[in-house]
Design a protein that fits this description.
Largest sheet: 4 strands, antiparallel
Number of strands: 28
Number of domains: 1
Helix content: under 10%
Structural class: mainly beta
Distance between the termini: 18 Å
């Protein structure tokens, strides 16, 4: 994200790249639950609404576009919002409004899952963040405008922000400061939530390139930037941008998170691993554990009430033999391809065979 896998289970011949057990690395975390929920469509982000106890997963594709909601405690399906071709979801707890990073942006009622309205925006919506500081939603785009800011209460557009590059993931301290990793510039943009202006950029100074995930310990003012090349977590002071240290992670990162209850930062990787970094103090960190999840499980979300991490992927058949012919283009909405898109990009992980039908699976990691 191997002791139990589709390839090894009871003589099964699927040879899928999937694993549901704790890696040999010792540590408190393990896969505590899986749910094979199936269904067609590509994937990108996964989002846990810890207060509302719902898990949202957008599924993409011309025929399969929708947002599916699951019970965050049982992983049982709760319903769908159809015909929404989105990358991610975020929820404003105060208003009870959810938003999808689609174009147009979809605004919905989190209790009923009814669509409230759609909001036309420019750019190409990808990442998304809900900021409780002033009840605004940040829609991130690799194309200008890099961030469209929406008022969560009524869905009106508050403004747009030029971040100076292609954003991937954002984090908020809930006190007026937004941090956004800029993948193509190898820095972290600092945004004033009151004025919607960029107040600075924290350069990663060559310690890590292509930050694909970003997490924040708001209490201790620590940023965790999960980078592609080399595969490291760059750890910075969020007030000054000073780099504290770097730690190794696994290949194909495309998401990061932080649990303030356990003082653990996480990086999910397309090679099927979840790296857990323990904050021993605001200046002392260690790689606590590497947990095996599923190959392709490259994005993640933290359920801060259950102290669990959730990720997702498909099961895959055997890797095809090398061929001189170029690979066929994936079907619309399928995982793969170039660019970040719906499941492509640097977080894809190792080569793999075809997706197995109805194998889409949610993986939950925790201590119990």
């Amino acid at each position: 994200m191997k002791t139990i896998s589709v390839a090894a289970a009871a003589g099964c011949a699927l040879l899928a790249y999937i694993a549901f057990a704790q890696s040999p690395a010792t540590g408190p975390n393990k896969v505590v639950k899986t749910a094979k929920v199936g269904g067609e469509g590509g994937l990108d982000y996964i989002y846990a609404d810890a207060d509302g106890r719902k898990l949202y997963i957008p599924r993409s594709g011309q025929q399969n576009a929708r947002i599916t909601a699951f019970n965050l405690d049982t992983l049982a399906p709760l319903g769908e919002i159809p015909n929404i071709n989105a990358h991610g979801v975020a929820v404003d707890t105060k208003s009870g409004h959810g938003f999808a990073s689609s174009n147009p942006v979809a605004m919905f009622d989190t209790k009923t899952l009814a669509l409230i309205k759609t909001i036309p925006v420019e750019g190409n919506p990808d990442g998304i963040l809900a900021d409780p500081f002033n009840q605004r939603i940040y829609i991130l785009s690799h194309r200008a405008p890099n961030a469209t800011v929406i008022n969560a209460a009524d869905g009106s557009i508050a403004g747009t922000i030029d971040l100076g590059g292609a954003p991937e993931q954002a984090a908020t301290d809930g006190k007026g400061h937004i941090y956004i990793d800029i993948e193509d510039k190898n820095n972290i943009a600092v945004v004033d939530a009151k004025t919607m202006t960029v107040t600075g950029h924290y350069d990663l100074e060559g310690k890590g390139n292509g930050p694909g995930g970003l997490a924040l310990d708001a209490k201790n003012h620590i940023l965790f930037a999960a980078c592609h090349e080399p595969a490291v977590m760059v750890i910075l002071n969020s007030d000054t941008g000073k780099i504290i240290t770097t730690l190794p992670i696994e290949g194909g990162t495309d998401g990061a998170g932080f649990n303030p209850n356990t003082l653990e930062a996480f990086s999910s990787q397309g090679n099927g691993t979840l790296t857990v970094i323990k904050e021993l103090s605001p200046t002392n960190f260690e790689v606590e554990q590497t947990v095996q999840t599923m190959v392709g499980a490259r994005t993640m979300t933290v359920d801060s009430k259950a102290n669990h991490v959730l990720t997702m992927s498909f099961e895959y058949g055997p890797t095809p033999a090398p061929s001189a012919a170029p690979p066929a283009a994936p079907p619309a909405g399928a995982q793969g391809g170039t660019g970040r898109g719906f499941g492509g990009g640097r977080g894809r992980g190792p080569a793999r065979g075809p997706q197995l039908p109805d194998s889409f699976t949610i993986v939950e990691v925790g201590t119990k």
